[in-house]
Amino acid sequence: MLRCTRKGWAGGPALGLFLLAPLIGEYLHGNMSVTALPWLVLTAPLYGGGALLVREAARRTRRGWPTVFLLGLAYAVFEEGLVTHTLFNPSYFGYPLLSWARLPVVEMGAWWTIFVLTLHVVWSISASIALAEALVPHRAAEPWLSNRGIVVIGIVFVLGAATNWLATYDLEQFVPAAEQLTGTAVTVVLLVVAAFRVAGRRHSPIGWRSPIGRAAPSPGWVATTAFVMTSVFIVLGWFPGWPTVAVYLGLYLIGWLLLRRWTRRPGWSGRHVLALTGGALATYAWYAFPSRPLVGAAGPVDTAGNVLFALGLVGLLWHARRATSMSAPAPEWLS
User: Fold this and answer.
1) Beta-carbon neighbour count of residue 105 at 10 Å?
2) Which UniProt keywords apply (predicted)?
3) 3-class SS at 103?
4) Residues 196, 63: Cα–Cα separation, whole Å
5) How many CB atoms lie within 10 A of CB 75?
6) Reduced to 3 states, what is the DSSP secondary structure of residue 94?
7) What pTM value is reported for the model?
8) How far apart are the C-alpha atoms of 125 and 121, rounded to whole Å?
């Protein structure tokens, strides 16, 4: 499962992603305080296991980021719909999540559904994978787990999901209706199928690369754009409702058009993917400071923890930038 090779310990990147996913998804984000680090035992199997399975499925089939995004969305629907049930719980942690931009036919909240699924797709899964790969760019295109390792991580993921389900039920005493659970399961399956059927292009992350035309924008411009757009997305989360849903859909459209244009231009590379990742992660870093953690101590100790996580992010991005600039260009389907 984990072995030593001439390139180093084969399990290093996998273990790194296993820990990065929950640290980014919950701690850098500010949902959990630094005093809740022991909860990694509960969050890593679900977040880290999910991120590893998504990455292995995409990279073993030599598929790019559209497949990662769709598999990340399948993971998000699985976690929030079948594990923690926040997509259907009218009072999760005391918050009336379904009352904002309510969809009465399916008993869901449009604002919360878009918001929480985006958090998982962009940050918990995609950004975690992109950062982990940027730290070891010479191994970014290859599998990180053996076949036995995939089985083990699969078991760990299932156990993590079951443990989180039990913990959530113990706190909330809520189970969605059978129709909601069935619809969620079908949605997860359809997203997985779409990840390998619709997003099956292996030669470019968004579309076919054009050999002529304007060069790709600078990584600095890409990072700034990512930071601004993700910051707008996060800030609007403080104003839930139908107007915010409309703006979210507009941000999706703008983001898709920008990525489609940028990734088709000559010069788009792994450095640009890292820039996108860094801009998005910087948003999570600042957002943690005005946020109050749902788990763990608040106050000065939480602020100190946010500083620690932000500095850790800066260090990882610095190392990833150095590693990416010194490595050979990534395969086109990966960059």
Assistant:
1) 6
2) Membrane, Transmembrane, Transmembrane helix
3) strand
4) 8
5) 27
6) coil
7) 0.91
8) 5
CA dihedral 239, 245, 248, 253 (to 10 degrees): -160
| d(C-alpha 114, C-alpha 257), whole Å | 19
Q: How many residues does the chain have?
A: 335
Q: Which amino acid is at 198?
A: V
Which tokens sit at 170?
A: 């113990």
How many angstroms separate the Cα of 90 from the Cα of each of 103, 119, 174, 182, 237?
Answer: 12, 20, 9, 19, 18
- Sign (positive/negative) of CA torsion 45, 51, 54, 56? negative
Q: Identify whether the C-beta of residue 260 lies closer than 8 Å to the C-beta of residue 207.
A: yes
Q: Cα 108 vs. chain centroid, distance in angstroms?
A: 22
CB 140 within 8 A of CB 270: yes
Show the tokens assigned to 64: 């790019």
Nearest partner of 277 among 330, 232, 321, judged by Cα: 321
Among residues 105, 110, 95, the alpha carbon closest in space to that of 172 is found at: 95
Calculate ∠ Cα 234-313-235, nearest 5°: 10
Do 89 and 97 touch, CB atoms closer than 8 A? Answer: yes
d(CA 252, CA 9): 39
The DSSP bridge partners found for residue 5 are: 8
pLDDT tens string for the chain (335 positions)? 544 443 434 568 999 999 999 999 999 999 999 999 999 999 999 999 999 999 999 999 999 899 999 999 999 999 999 999 999 999 888 889 999 999 998 899 999 999 999 999 999 999 999 999 999 999 998 999 999 999 999 999 999 999 999 999 999 899 999 999 999 999 999 999 999 987 555 444 444 444 446 888 999 999 999 999 999 999 999 999 999 999 999 999 999 999 999 998 898 999 999 999 999 999 999 999 999 999 999 999 999 999 999 999 999 999 999 998 876 666 655 65
